[in-house]
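Batch manifest, entry 17 of 40.
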Amino acid sequence: MQAALNLQKVVLVNYISSFHSIIETLRASPQGCMLYVAEGGRHAGPRIRQIIEEAEKRGIAVRHLSEMDLSRMCPEHRGLVLAAPLEARGMLSIEALCEHSSSKDAGLVLVLDHIEDPHNLGAIVRSADAFGVDAVVIPTRRASPLTDAAERSAAGATAWLPVIQVKNLRAAVDQLKDAGFWIYAADMSGSALGAKPLGKKVAILLGNEGKGVSRILKDAADECISIPMFGHVESLNVSVSAAILMYEYRRAHALL
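Output type: structure tokens
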């Protein structure tokens, strides 16, 4: 997935090649999208035909390009690419999220502290959508963006779940606190998950694959929590940890 600028209007665009992501984006927010298909039909299997039919049903323009041009647009394509404006894909600012949440007494947000592996990012977003998370917050620098690899791992979840990019994670956490979120940092030294119920309106901080949650964010947290371990390995993959924490929140608040 790459970024480009529409020459008629300055709009940041994602080029998406994951079949799941293309289908979900067409279903969720097709406005402004355009579907590019490889000429010649060498890749024209049933999934591609399904996507073309979905695009045509929703009035999305379908254009044919040479394999070379399509590869320039998105090297990992499998016969077609969807150009989707970011503004049409559930984009949200941290300010809008906090304003929307300020009057609510429940909510769940994930803050990812410089997750570098796009597969981990995509897997977290996929689980976050499954567990009804309000938004995922990621930094603009020193972390995986929503690359094509992340989109594939997310299996279309990015079409439905806001992923908010911020320049300063600490400032974003402070804004969430001001909006009434209780901040939990996932840390091996924290209190055991399940020892007491998680709050109803929470933001969970998940750290970098190697370093964990940074000190500056742990200092901003109201509480540190850990997942009890009973085997021989010292830690879990961050996407697995995220799914466990989200499940525990939903288990504790099953009626929300």
